[in-house]
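Section 3.1: Structural characterization of target chains.
Under the original work plan, the team committed to producing a structural model for every single-chain target entering the pipeline before any wet-lab resources were allocated. The record below documents one such target. The sequence was received from the expression subgroup and is listed exactly as submitted; it comprises 108 residues.
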Amino acid sequence: IELYDDGKIAFAYITKEDIKNVGAKEGEHEGLVDIAKSIKDVKVSIFAREENQGYNISFRSKDGINVREVAESFGGGGHRAAAGCVINEELDVTRTKVLERVRKKING
């Protein structure tokens, strides 16, 4: 788990290679995004799972931060405090884009 912005944003990810190396089965990653949200000071938790040509992104938030709007900006959707999308980019590009939009939500 990587923490950004004085611990307000948590970003975690898993690659296809990671999944293969640990022998994880489909769905075993569920709930990981919620673990990071429980960290003190974290307002938005992001979990990126590599699939096909990009990453499936899950967002969770607290303190009224609307992550649905972040997900929708990438063509996804969901609820105010739980949303998701798919970004067909490399991990570094995905991380940069997601962090930029989440920062705008947190900082107004």
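Residues 91-107 form the longest helix (17 residues).
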